[in-house]
Amino acid sequence: MDTIKLKSVIESLLLANGEPLGIKRIAEMLELPNADVRQAVKDLMEDYELRQGGIRIVEIANGFQLRTPVENGAFVKMLNASKPFKFSRAALETLSIIAYRQPITRSDVEYLRGVDSGGVLKTLLEKHLVRILGKKDVPGRPIIYGTSPQFLELFGLKDLSQLPPLKEVGALEEETPLPLPEKQPMTELSPSKG
User: Disulfide: which of 24, 94, 107, 131 matches 148 by Cβ 3.0-4.6 Å?
Assistant: First the structure.
């Protein structure tokens, strides 16, 4: 497949999918090397940037997606005048704790917040912003939670390394005697959407 045709096909796939699409998945569908697809996506991104139009290809949530430029956001909001999802303070606190401390159990979230978080956690699961990662390998086998690809997409993040740094990390860790290592032993659950 020549470069022009490849770029055209990739552009169509990104438009039709609606969700971020990774290089590996595109390469598998087209039966092409990852490097060829990666170069075609890079070329497409440059084409869109040079054109300075109303659509860009953005690397987000471990994939690529067609998006409008940030500077056009106010106009797009006028078109989509529906009421946007608003986070309650409890939802933002819970989501922040999960994002920065994942993988994490419900009891650890509740310890850090100081209140029951079951209802908020359920809402975040229903909105597909949080997902179940597995079960902690301790007595009782509590469920371990983490953020989802939809979380990355909603907040416009390529991956978790793009989360803004916590200014009070030192203070938070001094207050919190919980040892929460980056990777906790867990058993994988069968993959589920969300």
Answer: 131
| Helix or strand run (H / E) with residue 63 | strand 63-67
52, 54, 59, 68: which is closest to 26 by C-alpha?
59
What mean pLDDT comes out for the span 31-57? 93
Task: Quote the CA–CA distance of 190 and 40 in Å, as a whole number.
Answer: 34
Mark out the alpha helices in 32-113 (DSSP H runs): 34-51, 73-79, 89-101, 106-113
Q: Could you tell me the two tokens for 101? A: 């401390």
| CA 45/CA 27 separation, integer angstroms | 17
Q: Which of 108, 90, 91, 181 is nearest to 145 (CA)?
A: 108
* Paired tokens of 9: 């096909």
Question: 92-108, pLDDT tens digit by residue?
Answer: 899 999 999 999 999 99
* Amino acid found at 124: L
- The domain locations on the chain are 3-79, 89-187
